[in-house]
Prior knowledge:
The chain is α/β, with parallel strands linked by helices. The chain has one domain: TIM Barrel, CATH 3.20.20.190. Helices cover about 35% and strands about 20% of the residues. The chain has ten helices and eleven strands. The strands form two sheets. The protein has an eight-stranded parallel barrel with strand order 1-2-6-7-8-9-10-11. A two-stranded antiparallel ribbon has the order 4-5. Helix 8 links the parallel strand 8 (about 155-160) and strand 9 (about 175-180). Helix 1 runs parallel beside helix 4. The radius of gyration is 17 Å and the shape is globular. The chain starts with a strand and ends in a 10-residue tail after the last strand. The relative contact order is 0.16.
Amino acid sequence: MIYFAHRGASGQRVQNTLPAFARARQLGARCYELDVHLTQDGFLTVHHDYDLSSTAGAAVEIKNVSLAQLKNYPLANPFDGSPVFVPQLQDVLPLVEKDLQILNVEIKNDGNRYPGIEQKLLAELAAYNPAILAKTLFSSFDYDTLVRVRELSKNARIGQLTRVFDVSEALALKAESVHLNHTRFTPEIARICHDNGLKVYLYTVNEKPLAQQLQRQGADGIFTDHIDLFVSQA
């Protein structure tokens, strides 16, 4: 069973921030999940939503501001109140690369909101460390985004993130995994995936008994906000 630290140790630190990824590694994470966007001036940043409404109380879209301007919007921090901000991807990578097994990068690109993000992401990962690129699993709810990733790289590792399971779509992408909400998962989906050489990773699972049940039903991994429940502390 593979356990992904969902947006870092998001049960203990502000999700998708440097403290969240640092804490996840401290707790023993070896697999991580994060979300990427592009700023107006072309920097890859890590954040879940397209805007800052729910995280910083600001109706500001990431695509419409520069990297420098993002520093004007501290994220709400209910954990310790310290100032935290939307980080660059290049600042997250050093925090997760030690003993890294899989880095699942979800590309937030519905309707090709960020033209060229796929090429920029592949290039930035390769420039930082080709070993990290080889351990990166690209996912997106936007199917065309994953098609472009595959067109750009025959070696890219792809996990199809979907709300409606269709194994033919995953196979067309030459994906290695299918990612689903755990409430949509069934043992039959696991059987079909495994018969076609695909892994099944489920989100977001925060209780051990549920994780164990899903594993018995055929799940190969979960995304969790509470990575401490599932891995040994370093």
